[in-house]
Fold:
Amino acid sequence: MSDIASVSIARPLEEVAQELGQSFEEYGFAVIRDHGIPQALIDRAEEMSKAFFALPDEDKRAYHIPGGGGARGYTPFGTEKAKGAEVQDLKEFWHVGRELPEGHELSEFMAPNIWPGEVDGFRATFTELYAAFEEAGARVLEAIALHLGLPRGFFAPTVEDGNSVMRLLRYPPLEGEGAEGAIRAAAHGDINTITLLLGAEEAGLELLTTSGEWLAIDPPEGALVVNIGDMLDRLTNGKLRSTTHRVVNPTGEAAYRARYSMPFFLHFRPDYVIETLPSCINPTAPEAHPEPISSHDFLMQRLREINLA
Structure:
């Protein structure tokens, strides 16, 4: 079995598209180096994320929007649970979404962001990081398009003004004997198109292989871990795999400290219809593919399943 690809996207995409695509077909995951997000920006964002989560509980809860499905602002502990899981995950998080100009045709799908007043520079930093994530994501999607034999720019209009969400995530330190190996985020698949994750260097992220084994992902410092979401899995009729993954607590002293990460859930436009690509339909089973569905309807269906809608 080959390893998960670790690819520099500073190289010409024609040179890496095949390796990247094969990793997404086999594992649903790849490690992306030289992604173009400046390390200084990442460091600044991490400091601000930690500063926000260090605020008193009542200050953070002031940014919780009941009935908002966690799409913007703060989501406290014990809210989200993985599909089919019995218990809520051990995490708190903050969401930053797309800023649309007033009167935009898609504004019914995307609420305005809210920003914490307690952390100086928070809005400017995360607005900049959101844009940098988008740029890196667009480049990964170009490589995926090349791998699928599509025009390089195929995905650009499908994700333009998409409902992408950046999540700042904190898993609290755990205590007691059960801390080592405890599940911080239960096994789940991502709903969106692709996910780009910063902060996976801290051990714990694992994916479920096709042979049913958990495989730890160990990226180099500063790299992005990218995985396929259910929307792209659906578009490609399962050719690119949305793989079940989880976050487990590491062993040793790392088990007893907080874990922070920043995933960017890149989404199609809400009005984009996810209809199987003709090249991904099996000619011997031409009916064996999912029904077309708009990305917004698909998102709502899935958010209801995980307790966020």
Observations:
- The two ends are 39 Å apart (CA to CA).
- The first strand starts at residue 6 and ends at 8.
- The helical segments are 13-26, 39-53, 57-61, 122-147, 156-159, 230-235, 295-305.
